[in-house]
Amino acid sequence: MKGRGAVDVRIEEVRFSYDGAPMFFETTIAADAITALIGPSGSGKSTLLNLVAGFETPTQGRILFAGRDFTSVAPSERPVSMIFQENNLFAHLDVGANVGLGRSPSLRLQRADRKDISAALERVGLAGKEKRLPRELSGGERQRVALARVLVRDRPVLLLDEAFASLGPSLRQDMLDLVRDLRRARDMTVLMVTHDPADALRIAEHTIFLEAGRIVASGDTATMLSDKAPKQVQRYLGGEIGGAGGEFARKGT
Amino acid sequence: MALRDEPLTGARRGAAEWAGLAALGFIVLLIGGAIVGMALEGVRDPSGAGAAFDSYLLRVVRFTLLQATLSTLVSVLPAIAVARALSRHGAFRGRGIMLRLFSVPLALPPIVAALGILALYGRAGLFADLAAATGLGQWPSIYGLSGILTAHAFFNIPLAARLLLQALDTIPADHWRLASQLGMSPWSTFRFIEWPAMRAALPGVAGLVFMLCVTSFTIVLTLGGGPAATTLEVAIYQALRFDFDPARALILTVLQLGLTISVVFLLARLGANMSGEASISISRRRHAGAGRMETLFNAAVLGLAFIFVGAPIAAVVTAGLEADLARLLGEAAVRSALLTSLLLALVAAVLCSVLTYALVSGRMRLESGRRSAPAGLLERALDGGTSLVLVVPPIIIGAGWFLLLRRFADAFALAPVMVASVNAVMAIPFAVRAIRPAHDSAFDRHDRLCRQLGIRGLSRLRLVDWPVMRRPLATGFAFAMALSIGDLGVIALFGSEEVQTLPYLLLSRMSSYRTADAAGIALILAVFCFLLIMLAERLGGERR
């Protein structure tokens, strides 16, 4: 997928059923932008991400990247990288190998690859830590290693499944800022699931709101999370966010 | 739809399922072949099978059930007292040693234990000498029901005590605090707190012990001592090896199969864990202090249990050391039997690890593929395949194949194949305990990541699965090898002058009354088993 332009993701009348709960998704994720997915737990946020990543197959409908149908393509063959909340690294492999797997799944690395790995690690603030094992790193550092792997893998779409949810507030802001910078540098399309509207306000241009397996509302983040937001979103955000909306707006993007 | 699933499931995914299916096929073939062997025998000579029904048969069935019932009683009742004492005193000195000792019978081959019991309670044993020296007159013979019960209690008191202790460990700490706050007497504590916890586990524990005693072969063979104390399994062995009476062997086999199937069915309904517990629980929770009387009582219970379990082990060691070990190890027959045992156990352990891994990994892939949908037929079959051998005991498999093979070939020449494959399948339930938890948790952590990054096939094996599974596989391997090396089951049927394992040689020395030789061989065998079990526990322990 090298030398491509920005890639948009079209989710075309996708139907899926999880635990007997029917789901239906229809939307387009804008290219070269960050889109946040918010909604109550069980609303289908992670399922939508898994459908885009290819871990789940729709019972109906299509998933298109830059207009090409990828509905039945294996996860590793899609123009997508994904970061999970945990277990992004193999605990028995060192940092260099974990990042290197993004370049070669059989870990056959050339000298140039190793240079790229070092550069990627430097880019995420882990210069020279190739030989460390994941257990020697903090939670934030482990997610940085996963981001470094995204860089060497170089796919145009990045999916974040509550990737920073287990980090403390300031660490989380640092990671979000890093994602924003990397997105700009690489023209990536980012789709992130978060349970905290502050994450969306910080870096996401667009926000999609899900409820009970459907996309209920979407628009730019500033509108979606203000008091001009659709009723369902306001109900989800609740009284405290209604008041806090102004405060978030000040932080802005 | 198939087209759509294909790229998702990928080549590797299919491979694991096929491997699981192949492993299941092997087990089914092994058991199916035995059943075909029996069926052919029955078809060939239906009148013979009918004629085999006689009062002898009835007596054998009755004795099988009688000894299993009594063995269960003499194992489980003391175990209740022992487990309770261990649970009440969470931190006394020697508790660790006690629990370690209780894990020894699991590693000890039954034939070695039988020898230890003979060395203690036999006519030429320690107690007989004591009785003679103190003028108490003649010591009664240990052979028969008393010997069988003693040996079964030796194996199963520790097993039942450990399982019941686990049940006691599940009692929430708050209940203990509440009990001591309310000032409950030991009896009330037992009645309201300990007994309910143990009662829930008791049917499963008793069922497991009963099953082990119904299928107990070696103990009855070596300590039964005659036709008056014969169980179905031993009668099958005698019908095939001594009387050459296939018709009788067939009817006995069918009876035993019917018996084990009903017991397993009953056990499954009770929710018992049929492979027993391989790990020991060394909980050190401190409860409210026991009173003086209770402490004395518990000390007596634990002291007796310690002596009862420890003494036969000590007897094996001392009797073995008295034997001329150097001469024994120099003997060609001993050396070749040792070599055969090691070789067959090695093959069995490799086969067992491979089969177990294939079953476990095929099952897990199916489980993760279906998400929350109910388990499919194949997944349940792979799951059940791991414990199929519990329904069909090794002697039955051996007997069926013996009946089948003697039509086409020299059954004795095929001894190595039969011993290795049956022992491999026999050890699967134990290997599953070592391999499955590690495999399933690693699969949960790694599968999505591997699919995302496209790590498949050999790369996945080399970079992900092997480094993670190496230790658990080695644990399962060592357990399987220890079980196999000490087993006297199939080899009793198929053994001959040409193919002898160490337990087989031990049996033949015992039956020719070369007691010192037998004691020496038993010690050698025990040492090998122990080294393997220690290795398995070490590998398993460091993983955690």
Mean pLDDT of chain A: 88
- Helical coverage of chain A, percent range: 25-40%
- Enumerate how many helices of chain B there are, as a single number: 23
| Structural class by helix and strand composition of chain B | mainly alpha
Strand content of chain B: under 5%
Q: How many extended strands of chain A?
A: 10
Ends distance of chain A: 30 Å
Gyration radius from CA atoms of chain A, angstroms: 18 Å
User: Which descriptor suits the 3D outline of chain A?
Assistant: globular
SSE series of chain B: HHHHHHHHHHHHHHHHHHHHHHH
Tell me the quaternary state. heterodimer
Itemize the secondary structure elements and their pairings.
The complex is a heterodimer of chains A (253) and B (544).
Chain A: E1 9-18, E2 21-29, E3 34-38, H1 45-53, E4 60-65, E5 68-69, E6 80-83, H2 95-100, H3 111-123, H4 139-153, E7 157-161, H5 169-186, E8 189-193, H6 197-203, E9 206-211, E10 214-220, H7 221-224, H8 231-251
Parallel strand pairs in A: 3-8, 3-9, 6-7, 7-8
Antiparallel strand pairs in A: 1-2, 1-4, 4-5, 9-10
Helix pairs in contact in A: 3-4, 4-5, 6-8
Chain B: H1 2-44, H2 46-51, H3 55-88, H4 95-107, H5 110-121, H6 126-133, H7 145-169, H8 173-181, H9 186-214, H10 218-223, H11 232-241, H12 246-270, H13 292-322, H14 325-330, H15 332-370, H16 377-385, H17 388-391, H18 394-408, H19 415-453, H20 457-485, H21 490-494, H22 502-511, H23 515-543
Helix pairs in contact in B: 1-15, 1-16, 1-18, 3-7, 3-9, 3-13, 4-7, 4-13, 5-7, 5-13, 5-23, 7-9, 7-13, 9-12, 11-12, 11-18, 12-18, 13-23, 15-16, 15-19, 15-20, 15-22, 18-19, 19-20, 20-23, 22-23
Tell me briefly what this model is.
The complex is a heterodimer of chains A (253) and B (544). Chain A contains 8 helices and 10 strands.
